[in-house]
Amino acid sequence: MNLDSARLLVVGAGLMGAGIAQVAAQAGHDVALFDTRAGAAEAAKAKLAGTLEGLAAKGKLTPEAVAATLARITPVAALQPADLVIEAIVEHLDIKRALFAELEALLADDAIIATNTSSISVTALARGMKRPERLVGMHFFNPVPLMKLVEVVSGLGTDPHVAQAIESLAARWGKTPVHTRSTPGFIVNRIARPYYAEALMLLQDRAATPELIDACLRAAGFRMGPCELMDLIGHDTNFAVTNSVFAANFFDRRFTPSLVQQELVDAGFLGRKSGRGFYRYPEGAPPVPVERFASPTAQRLVVHGQGFVADRFAAAFPHAERQTLSDWVGLEADRAQLRLTDGRTAREVAAERELQAPVVVFDLPLGEPSHLAYAKSGDFDAPVAWLAAAGFQPLEMVDVPGLIVARTIAMLVNEANDAVQQGVCSEEGADAAMKLGVNYPAGPFEWQGRWGASAIVALLDRLDAYYRGERYRVSPYLRLTTH
């Protein structure tokens, strides 16, 4: 099944549909663009012409390439036969099903219908079709011309050859196709839920401010923190997706929506588009105050444990002793201990070890030295100065288990493991999807390889014991990797 010279019909001339038409035309396909709104297809092509001409003026496209691309896109006033139809209309099950019924009445038996749905089950969409095997998900990400990822979604009835043909086509268009089963949220919208959910949980527990959470996760390599990202997406949209995934998973408590976000939606504080969300706009997030520390001194300095965090401390303090066989990772300065979080609070560590000396737990430092959250077992500041001396900007938060980055990364890894166990995607597919679809600095299995499955499982088990409930249960697939 070869679609290299396929005639395309794109249904829906909004932002996504116009972007799909552009990518297909630039790849050499003749594209008919249809929208039920009078004049919408013509307006989309005119807007695209302006965009492409702007790129030509900057030298990024030749005038000939612009003219050729525009010549291949034809606005049409009605549905028409094609080898491949890609729909990018409203996210509504019944409206999409009605469109597919119309299309099947005029398409040849071997024509393929691809849906750009981001959240509706492809299996459910195919119900009632004469040829359900021809329906496949082809989920692009916005903006379509720039984002490399395409989730190729197989419903229960999708012909594997159809999915393969769409994967090959997406690759020829310069995209990176990742195959997924039609399960709630597919890959990206499912695995990404903890990025928002853990921030909302911390806010509900009053453990940190939005700006502190955002600063720490940006320091870990994310382009935007979860609070500013939710403000950008719109809390109404993000909350609706969370509710949809929650319901579609039969109200699995891992996906429970947040009262914090519901209150924002109820207030109309939807983010950038309303002028206020977690932050006020156009100002955005306020700067995080930086603590200042005097240069620390110690009679005895010891780097404990193994791995990249211990190695980072050893590089920062080359004259320190090394104890690689310790059962914890961090720094000991005289009697004070600065420990990488393992899911226990600073107070729990001090009580369990019967330590009378200060205990500081610090967050997982994934990126270059920058903002790093910490919590302490008592009212003291001196040991924290060693984090600053190592190049970090320490930010104090409430003493809760897992802090910010560690619990977020652990939950992203856990969700990815569940997705692989359930046959939603491969490990490689999960990594590619999260890096290309939402610009994560690494894939969940890359993080797992760097941090270690045993450390992640231990942290999640302690979160589970602390909070009780289903939220932090460990994926069996992840736990198996520790055996």
Structure description:
This protein has 483 residues and is α/β, with parallel strands linked by helices. It has four domains: 8-182, Rossmann fold (3-Layer(aba) Sandwich), CATH 3.40.50.720; 189-274, N-(1-d-carboxylethyl)-l-norvaline Dehydrogenase, domain 2 (Orthogonal Bundle); 301-396, Transcription Regulator spoIIAA (2-Layer Sandwich); 408-425 and 441-480, no CATH class. Helix content is 42%, strand content 14%. It contains 20 helices and 15 strands. An eight-stranded mixed beta sheet has the order 3-2-1-4-5-6-7-8, sandwiched between helices. Strands 10-9-11-12-13-14-15 form a seven-stranded mixed beta sheet, with helices on both faces. Strand 4 (84-87), helix 4 and strand 5 (112-115) form a beta-alpha-beta unit. The longest helix has 18 residues, at 40-57. The protein is elongated. The two termini are 43 Å apart. The model has no long low-confidence stretch (mean pLDDT 95).
What's the topology here?
Blueprint: E1 8-11, H1 15-26, E2 31-34, H2 40-57, H3 63-71, E3 73-76, E4 84-87, H4 93-106, E5 112-115, H5 122-126, E6 135-140, E7 149-154, H6 160-172, E8 176-181, H7 188-191, H8 193-204, H9 210-219, H10 226-233, H11 235-248, H12 259-267, E9 301-304, H13 308-316, E10 321-323, E11 330-333, E12 336-340, H14 346-352, E13 359-362, E14 371-376, H15 385-389, E15 393-396, H16 405-421, H17 427-437, H18 444-451, H19 453-467, H20 476-480
Parallel strand pairs: 1-2, 1-4, 2-3, 4-5, 5-6, 7-8, 9-10, 12-13, 14-15
Antiparallel strand pairs: 6-7, 9-11, 11-12, 13-14
Helix pairs in contact: 1-2, 8-16, 10-11, 16-18, 16-19
